[in-house]
Design brief:
alpha+beta, elongated, 42% helix, 35 strands
């Protein structure tokens, strides 16, 4: 139980107080255990609340009120309260595209127009949370700002970066060549001596004052100052943000509402040239969509005629406005598709003859024949001039052509070259086109629902193209309609187009098509307004062409636009009597019936005035039933009356000049009234035509009405087809919207009766009509609803806030309006689903709330009283009424008021007084008072007023009361109207909204829940506006809102939390949206309401959700919602202030937080930390969770979810850790908390995090282990250098082979605490573990040191050790990976490969058989780099998982691979990583110093100091920067100086470690590191000497360490080590204190001994690439240490490691057997235990050479001498470990008989220890080994075993010869040269007989590197040592042929290498 994980009991369903009491009594008051049992702090003081339940929060406002701010103004003071300017309401001017804003010219406007114009021109009303960007949603660590914060980082120097690149095989080879040359050129002996001539070498710089006797306190102080200077302030700036999607708490600011444009295309018309030039030609362009059969742009008219041609028309054309001279146009296409055509139509001046006749000259005359046809052309020109003079104002259709737009765009490809020249012929493309298509869709695609075929239509990035159109088709008089055009266009796309068979008119039209620039200059809108950046009005403009989108576009109107397009389509005068053949239609827009009433509102075409009063259609010669293709564009007046109408006059034009014949004869009239029942009349019309002028007052009637006495064509049938289309932001063109707006405006103006459609609505009927029109809004079309969205919502809100007075009664429309709003926003959500952000907020609605919405009475031009500017009075506003008040409002006063009432004798001084006086008199309760302030407060309603009341009760009580509140008529209100002549504002919008929402039910409630975010955001903005305009933002929060409103909000929040809990499984998506909406709402409320109240709401939600979570079997979904909720709330920009960071943690006297008892001090700051309960600060105690409310919730969630016993929450680890990480990284970068004092206060909020993370130690990813196995008891401790040097196979692997469960204990043993209940923990991912650890380091870095020290004092030894374990883990976690690793990661981003070691581990750990693995390895040998290491030569990078977990699956640097990132990025990444590693380790060092100071006075300091030392040593072993190492060595020296006995008496293994670390750094290539390491090593010797007048222990350890180092390290540099040795000698010479002792001589002896080892090292370096020579040297060195068991053992292990690297497992096993024999020899001297081996004799069955180990007997060396046999292997556990590794190696080598022999030694030991588990594993292994022997014993397999032994021991055993196999052999299956025979084998081994020899029948060729040729090889005698191995695996075999190359003395042990070069 003592080790039970914290918070383990919290989820238990049966929480029994008795059990608690019992256990707490049993275990005393350990803070950790109390925490486990959910008892925070002192049990007697306050009630316990389990972590799974929410505590009651402190009343923040009360607390702040009762604790005046004592701090000086400054950052610390700012921490205590929100800034005064926290929220501001900003009126931001609306950006206008045009130089002059688009508004109607009329000064008199009707209310609807006025409202629309106001809606399009008023400023945005934006609520700005000034510090919002400092919340976690905008955390710079998750944004691109991270790089800015990383500027100016110092470059940390790392040895791994400075060293030459040992990972590249090629570099290594070159280096070797250079080295071998120097070896050959120099006599070996002299060269070696010269390198190590210590006398002539230079020492490194000595550290000043190193030998002085300075007091420890002074040293500590100096070290601390050095460590703290120049540190990086922001830890998280160095740490990448966790990999997560867009943070849930980030709400993007909506886009500003603006005019919609599709993808824009710029078309420039350059020239138009025909074969003959005889008359002016007029052109127009427009876009058509064939598929939709729709014209998708208005016409663009352009004039490319020469001045001479224009001159022909001068009599008819007034001076042209510059706007009509445009030749370039910008088209907008919202839905680009393959069906869009650019259609060009040409017209000419009307002349006699049909179109065919007129076009003939253009088809037959060629420009080349001009001279030949001069006379004819002159004649034609003369005729043309005559027609121009006479008929110049009439046009006739001439020709047309079309360009398939998408062909041009897709063929022009992407923007690469300047432009493309294209020639377009008859419906086909000519010339060469680049066919590269760009399929990315750019632009505002949120509105598009393109089909898959349209995906390639991208108009924003194609290359500009110049088109030359060469062929036109003549127009046919009877095929002018749009229907005909669509047929032609569809036909053009077919290969066999009919059009191609027609004779074309040849011409040359040149146009440029390109993507439109972002902000083109000299641009005019469709209304001819100049767009901004219009430097010069005289420049020819570019016209923006209005789009008619092919499908609906859902964008609200934001600009005033009021255009009308008239399309005369056809006329049928076939039955009309009289001459009417050349017919034109004159179109006029009239405001009256007099001919002079025509309005100049018709837009001109080209080269004409801007506006004209009339427009004529083109004439089709001699056609009584012509079709028309005109487009007449009209600028509609803003205010229309019943007299506005379109007048159509039909004329017959006389083409021939005859006497007495007028040019034009009127032949008919018809008209369209513009308004019908107040609505704009648009659409298709088939009108009758009158033969006579219409009578008076015709304009108010429709021509369909049969007027008496009028003559009509064709008996009053419809003969004229015309279409009228409006593009207007005034006219909704939707009957339901029109009716709603009309009724609302009628109310505003109080004009009755209202005429709508055919109805006249009287005032008494108005209420019903209004309600029905509100509910009918649902039936309106979505497109107009969206276009008028802003105005529509404004009006609905106005009806809520100001209920209209109808017939003297107030009509409450709140409910109806609320329902309408809910229904409209749901329609938008469903239909515009592509328009939503990650939280499901529709962007149009979000924009409305953010920019447009304001309280109805805060308009700048509002006629309300009160201060100017934005702020009219919010309480009251007049409703604009006509001067004549309706009679219905003259109410009878007597029923409401007694005339004698003294309280209202005079005129009230202000509306407030007036209202108060009335309410005071009447004593109204709130049920029928619409007034916001004054009057007695109503009693709290509902049966249970607390926020946590059951939601059902809340709703029912709210419903009861709503009946009272929503009465439709009150006497008082009507009386007020009578008294003052105006109505007070009835309600505040947020109050009414909350009420309506609480009381609604059924489908309305469902609709509101679906889009809760909308109503929440609306409510919040309304609240802020109310506070701002009522000047309440400065008021205390408790008095800002009435109690009834707060009750409504409570009820609302409670019921919504209930919905989340009850529906999270059914409506997952909706509940997610609802959950985030609620969280954002509460986040917003924290800025404006009583914060204690909001905390109460949070608790309400929490309580409901938590109760459900802990009752579910799989709670992860709901718990995930809870985390999202919490994360959003905690993203508040004043999160720290909300947590009361300066409050004192004394428990309240009562369970509910009573603030008066919260603290006895009056100040919000406590300078005296002692007064606080330290335990409460570090644990999730009730006081902590109450006073730091939000932080308490966050840390509680973390603790609960990370608990290993928390079922079903494992998937949330990453999520909860990211939440904490995000908060801390946000605080870290927050400029408000940059001051260290402030940061310490912030860190105090997270002190319990340390405890929570300490509890998770067993679950954290183990960055220190090479294989991720954990949580098992220790039986052997393996030293760090095993992992560092890579000297053997991993311990984990070895132990797995041996069947034991010992992990490689590079972590301290306290990591292996038993887990609770013995269950295996699920491990966190690396990313989660890393995030947790960086959070831990941040808290340790920023927390107040004195507070930490006090807490450490309270911790038990176990807990302190656990903290040290965490720090140990942090060292590995944040170790610098090295620049080379980043480069390798970069080059191998896309490669998949497995390093050899991983394969080996896989094989050993049981996934495949060892033997197959051996074969597989042998095959892979050729692929592997000859350096023998998968990762090259850097020893501390090779084997350790913590270095390779970033780059698994990497084999070698593939230089051919193109890097994925630039060099600069890799450099930057390495820079960041280096700084992070340095800072993280310095924080760890700071913490270790605090721990040392804390425990130095306690009794149990030894065990803790040992842990401190372990962490220190581990950090030295890792890849560290020079800066860190200097501080680390300083700390290490101080530690040894304070506690010398620690190293030399208790922690002897650590002493060995320390020597190894120091020596390694003594050989560093970086000077400062060497200086510090030498100084540390010297002081270590000196302190050891001072304790006992010799330093045998250190001497021994240093020698062993050097031996280990040179044996294993491949980049070891003897040159640098020599300098360090010289430095140590120098210190010894300069040390005056010890000069008279033997110390300097002993130092010198040691240095020379080390020098000798280095000499061997140089020789080893020479043979680096000659493995056999290298092993031979190592063997000799090991032999030289016959008298030093520790060193001999070290070298034997080095040899085993080398063999293992080269896959020589048999040889490796023999080395391990020798090591075990050596250990056994010394154990038998020290301990008399029967079950242990007697010595090396026990091992002779395995190999007779083992007896060598007995040579060192007790007469040579005494095992109990200081420093001798002190290594950890000289123990029983060490012996077991060695034997198990040996067995594993034999097993891999396939020598199963030897496995049996090894286990014979092991079994008695385990039997003595009664270790059944181990015994079972061993017997399992033995069974496996024997099975393999039996299974494969086919006779010749027996030979395999028989012949294996000679490879490692003399063969045969009696022979005096040991074989050295020095050559590699390669076997192939062809070219027979050399035959083996059964006879040969039988001759060698007669005892086997022929039957046991099986040889391959295929001949084998043998080749090798050597001097002997095959025939000379003697094969006759065993003495020559031919050995044949046949190894069978299925049908494959491996052959080894070996022969002796030199003899070695008998009895000499030799481990022989063997290489497989190929296998079959």
């Amino acid at each position: 139980m003592a080790e039970r994980r914290a918070f383990a009991q919290k989820i238990s369903r049966t929480v029994a107080a008795e059990v608690r009491k019992q256990i707490s009594g049993q275990y005393g008051g350990s803070p950790q255990l109390l925490k486990n049992l959910n008892i925070g702090g002192s049990v007697s003081h306050h009630t316990t609340v389990p972590l799974t339940e929410a505590v009651d929060p402190v009343d923040v406002e009360e607390y702040l009120h009762s604790h005046p701010l004592a701090a000086e103004p400054g950052p610390l003071r700012d921490l205590l309260e929100f800034p005064r300017d926290d929220i501001e309401v900003v009126a931001t001017p609306r950006e206008c595209r045009t130089l002059v804003s688009a508004v109607p010219e009329e000064s008199e406007m009707d209310p609807h127009v006025r409202d629309c114009v106001r809606s399009y021109t008023e400023d945005w009303a934006i609520v700005n949370r000034k510090y919002h960007k400092l919340g976690t949603g905008f955390n710079p660590n998750t944004l691109d700002k991270q790089k800015e914060r990383q500027k100016g980082l110092p470059k940390q120097v790392f040895e791994s970066d400075e060293a030459p690149d040992g990972n590249s095989y090629q570099d290594e080879q070159d280096d070797l060549k250079r080295r071998s040359m120097s070896i050959d050129d120099t006599p070996r002996g002299s060269w070696a001596c010269s390198i190590f001539d210590l006398k002539n070498s230079q020492p490194d710089a000595l550290l000043p004052n190193l030998l002085d006797r300075t007091p420890n306190e002074e040293i500590d102080h100096h070290n601390e100052d050095q460590r703290k200077s120049g540190r990086h302030k922001e830890l998280f700036a160095l740490h990448p943000a966790p990999d997560e999607e867009e943070p849930i708490e980030r709400l993007s600011v909506p886009e500003v509402p603006k005019e919609h444009f599709g993808q824009r295309l710029l078309v420039k018309c350059l020239s138009l040239k025909f074969e003959i030039e005889i008359e002016p030609i007029f052109a127009s362009l427009a876009l058509y969509d064939v598929k939709e059969k729709k014209k998708i742009s208005e016409n663009f008219y352009f004039d490319l005629n020469s001045e001479q041609m224009k001159g022909m028309l001068r009599p008819h054309v007034p001076p042209a406005a510059i706007s009509t001279l445009a030749r370039s146009a910008i088209f907008s296409i919202t839905y680009p598709s393959q069906d869009v055509f650019l259609v060009i139509k040409l017209e000419k001046v009307l002349q006699q003859g049909d179109i065919g006749e007129c076009a003939e000259p253009y088809m037959i005359f060629k420009e080349s024949d001009a001279a030949k046809n001069k006379e004819k052309l002159e004649k034609l020109k003369g005729q043309a001039e005559q027609f121009c003079q006479r008929l110049g104002k009439y046009r006739m259709p001439f020709a047309w052509t079309a360009i398939h737009l998408m062909n041009i765009v897709s063929s022009a490809g992407s923007l690469e070259r300047d432009s493309t020249e294209v020639e377009v012929g008859t419906g086909e493309r000519k010339g060469s086109w680049s066919e590269r298509r760009n399929s990315s869709i750019v632009g505002r695609r949120s509105l598009e629902r393109t089909t898959s075929g349209d995906e390639a239509c991208n108009l924003s990035s194609f290359r500009p193209a110049t088109l030359t159109v060469t062929n036109f088709f003549k127009q046919e008089g009877d095929r002018l309609s749009d229907e005909d055009l669509y047929k032609f266009l569809a036909d053009m796309r077919r290969p066999s187009s009919v059009l191609r068979r027609l004779r074309p008119i040849t011409a040359q039209l040149k146009i440029d098509i390109s993507p439109a620039p972002e902000n083109p200059h000299y641009c005019l809108t469709p209304e001819l307004l100049q767009v901004k950046l219009y430097p010069d009005s005289r420049v020819r403009p570019t016209r923006e062409i209005l789009e008619f989108p092919a499908r609906d576009v859902y964008v609200p109107n934001t600009t005033y636009r009021n255009l009308l397009y008239v399309y005369p389509q056809s006329l049928n005068f076939a039955n009309r009597q009289g001459s009417a053949r050349n017919i034109t239609v004159k179109v006029q827009f009239m405001y009256g019936e007099d001919p002079s009433n025509a309005m100049p509102v018709i837009f001109g075409k080209s080269s004409c005035p801007e506006f004209s009063k009339e427009a004529y259609t083109a004439v089709v010669y001699h056609n009584r039933s012509p079709d028309f293709h005109e487009e007449i564009k009209i600028k509609l007046p803003a205010t229309l009356t019943d007299h506005h109408h379109l007048l159509f006059t039909f004329y017959h034009v006389s083409c021939q000049q005859k006497q007495n014949t007028p040019l034009e004869t009127p032949v008919g009239y018809t008209w369209i009234p513009m308004l019908q029942n107040g609505r704009l009349k648009t659409g298709q019309f088939c009108l009758p035509v009158s033969l006579e002028k219409p009578p008076q007052a015709y304009s108010v009637l429709s021509p369909e009405v049969p007027l008496p006495g009028m003559k009509w064509v064709d008996n009053h049938k419809g003969v004229f087809n015309v279409e009228v289309v409006a593009v207007s932001s005034l006219h909704t063109q939707d009957p339901y919207l029109d009716k709603f707006f009309a009724l609302v405006h009628a109310l505003d103006e109080h004009m009755f009766p209202v005429r709508i459609g055919d109805m006249r609505i009287m005032e008494n009927n108005l209420e019903n009509e209004l309600k029905s029109s509100i509910s009918a809004l649902n039936s309106s079309q979505l497109e107009p609803v969206v276009r008028f969205l802003h105005l529509l919502l404004d009006k609905l809100i106005l009806l809520v806030v100001r209920p209209p007075v109808i017939a003297g009664q107030i009509v409450n429309l709140g409910q109806a309006s609320f329902e309408a709003m809910a229904s409209i926003i749901n329609r938008l959500h469903k239909n515009l689903d592509g328009n939503q952000d990650q939280h499901g907020r529709n962007s149009l609605l979000a924009s409305y709330i953010y920019y447009v919405f304001r309280l109805p009475n805060t308009y700048p031009n509002s006629p309300s009283p009160g201060p100017g500017g934005l702020g009219g009075s919010v309480h009251y506003a007049t409703m604009a009424r006509s001067a004549v008040r309706p009679a219905s409002l003259n109410l009878n006063r007597s029923r409401s008021l007694s005339n004698s009432n003294p309280d209202i004798s005079g005129t009230p001084t202000s509306p407030d007084d007036e209202v108060r006086s009335i309410i005071g008199t009447k004593g109204l309760d709130r049920s029928n008072s619409w007034v916001n302030t004054g009057g007695p407060k109503a009693a709290p309603w509902g049966s249970n007023p607390s926020p946590s009341a059951e939601s059902t009760q809340v709703v029912s009580s709210a419903t009861d009361r709503s009946c009272n509140r929503m009465s439709s008529h009150t006497e008082t209100s009507s009386f007020l109207q009578t008294l003052t002549g105006r109505l007070p504002t009835k309600k505040l919008f947020h109050e009414e909204l909350a009420l309506q929402w609480v009381v609604c039910s059924g489908s309305v409630r469902e609709a509101a829940l679906q889009q809760a975010w909308f109503f929440f955001e609306l409510m919040v903005k309304s609240m802020v506006h109310h506070l701002y305009f009522a000047d309440k933002l400065e008021a205390t929060r408790k008095n800002r809102f009435p109690e009834r409103f707060m009750d409504d909000v409570s009820a609302l929040v409670s019921t919504i939390a209930g919905d989340i809990v009850s529906r999270f499984q059914k409506d997952t998506e909706m509940v997610e949206r609802l959950n985030t909406s609620l969280a954002f709402f509460l986040n917003d409320l924290l800025s404006i309401m009583d914060r204690g109240f909001v905390f109460g709401l949070i608790k309400t939600c929490y309580k409901q959700v938590s109760a459900k979570v802990y009752s579910l079997t799989n709670p992860s979904n709901l718990a995930s919602l809870k985390l999202d909720f919490l994360r959003i709330i905690c993203s508040h920009e004043h999160y720290v202030t909300l947590n009361l960071p300066c409050s004192l943690l004394t428990p309240p006297a009562s369970p509910s937080p009573s603030v008066s008892s919260a603290t006895s001090q009056s100040s919000g700051f406590s300078t005296n930390v002692q007064d606080q309960k330290i335990a409460n600060m570090f644990e999730l105690s009730v006081p902590f969770r109450q006073q730091h409310y939000l932080a308490g919730l966050v840390l509680t969630e973390l603790a609960v979810i990370l608990d290993p016993d928390a079922e079903g929450l494992f998937g949330l680890h990453k999520k909860v850790i990211n939440m904490v990480h995000n908060l801390l990284s946000s605080h870290d970068s927050d400029p408000r908390y940059a001051d260290p004092q402030v940061k310490a206060r912030v860190a105090m909020l997270y002190l319990p995090l340390i405890g929570v993370i300490m509890e998770t130690v067993p679950q954290l990813y183990d960055f220190t282990e090479s294989h991720n196995q954990r949580g098992r008891p220790s039986c052997v401790a393996v030293d760090d250098y095993e992992s560092e040097g890579g000297s053997m196979i991993s311990q984990t692997v070895a132990m797995a082979i041996a069947g034991t469960s010992v992990p490689q204990l590079t972590r301290p043993s306290s990591f292996l605490l038993p887990s609770s209940g013995g269950r295996q923990h699920s491990t966190f991912s690396t990313e989660s573990s890393r995030s947790l650890l960086i959070c831990l380091l941040w808290v340790l870095k920023n927390a107040d040191e004195s507070v930490l020290q006090k807490w450490f004092t309270d911790l038990s030894v176990l807990q302190l050790n656990r903290l040290l374990d965490l720090l140990y883990l942090c060292v590995s976690c944040f170790e610098y990976k090295g620049k080379k690793v980043f480069e390798r990661m970069n080059s191998l981003t896309f490669k998949k490969s497995k390093d050899m070691r991983a394969k080996l581990e896989e094989a050993i750990l049981g996934s495949i058989g060892a033997r197959q693995e051996m074969v597989r390895r042998s095959r892979g040998q050729l692929e592997r780099s000859p350096s023998g290491s998968a990762f090259g030569s850097q020893e501390n990078l090779r084997w350790r998982k913590d270095m390779t977990h970033w780059r698994q699956n990497t084999e070698k640097l593939d230089k051919s691979h193109k890097p994925a990132r630039s060099r600069a990025e890799i450099e930057h990444e390495a820079l960041i990583d280096g700084n992070l590693a340095t800072e993280a380790n310095l924080i760890i060092l700071d913490t270790l110093e605090i721990v040392v100071q804390t425990v130095s006075v306690t009794e149990s300091k030894e065990s803790i100091l040992g842990g401190v030392l372990k962490v220190l040593l581990h950090s030295m072993a890792c890849n560290q920067s020079a800066l860190y190492l200097q501080h680390c060595f300083a700390t290490q020296r101080a530690l040894v100086s304070k506690f010398p006995e620690l190293l030399f008496e208790e922690e002897t293994e650590q002493c060995a470690d320390l020597c190894l670390r120091l020596l390694r750094h003594c050989s560093s290539s970086i000077g400062p590191i060497r200086s510090h390491a030498s100084a540390s090593l010297y002081l270590l010797m000196r302190q050891n000497f001072e304790i006992g007048n010799n330093f045998a222990r250190v001497k021994m350890q240093v020698t062993m360490s050097l031996s280990s180092l040179v044996g294993t390290s491949q980049n070891f540099n003897e040159e640098f080590l020599r300098r360090s040795l010289k430095t140590i000698l120098t210190y010894a010479e300069e040390d005056l204190e010890l000069r008279e002792t033997t110390f300097p001589d002993q130092v010198q002896d040691l240095v020379f001994n080390l020098h000798m080892i280095l000499s061997d090292t140089v020789k080893m370096k020479e043979h680096q690439e000659d493995p056999e020579m290298l092993i031979d040297l190592m063997y000799r060195i090991a032999k030289g240490y016959q008298n030093s068991p520790d060193l001999r053992l070290t070298w034997l292990q080095n040899m085993a490691g080398k063999h293992s690297e080269r896959s020589n497992h048999a040889e490796s096993a023999q080395c391990l057997v020798h090591s075990a024999a050596l250990v056994a020899e010394y154990l038998s001297m020290l301990e008399d235990r029967k079950y242990l081996p007697v010595g090396c004799v026990t091992f002779q069955n395995i190999s007779s050479n083992v007896l060598e180990e007995s040579a060192v007997s007790d007469d040579v060396v005494s095992p109990d001498e200081e420093g001798i046999c002190s290594g950890k292997y000289f123990t029983e556990a060490g012996l077991v470990g060695l034997l198990e590794q040996a067995a594993a190696s034999f097993s891999m080598a396939g020598m199963y008989e030897a496995v049996n022999e090894v286990y014979k030694v092991l079994i008695p030991i385990h039997e003595a220890n009664r270790d059944a588990k181990k015994l079972s594993t061993i017997h399992g292994k033995l069974q496996e080994a024997f099975s393999k022997i039996v299974h494969q014993s086919t006779g010749w397999e027996f030979l395999l075993v028989e012949f294996f032994f000679p490879f490692s021991a003399p063969f045969p055993p009696t022979s005096p010869v040991c074989f050295w196999f020095g050559f590699f052999f390669c076997f192939t299956l062809w070219n027979p040269q050399f035959h083996f025979s059964k006879e040969l084998c039988q001759q060698q081994h007669p005892h086997h007989g022929t039957k046991n020899v099986v040889l391959p029948t295929t001949s084998i060729a043998v080749s090798w590197v050597g001097h002997q040729s095959i025939p000379e090889l003697s094969l006759n005698t065993p003495a020559d040592g031919l050995c044949v191995l046949i190894h069978g695996i299925n049908v494959e075999f491996i052959l080894f042929v070996c022969f002796p190359v030199r003899k070695i003395k008998k009895k000499s042990f030799h481990a022989v290498p063997r290489e497989f070069k190929n296998s079959f």
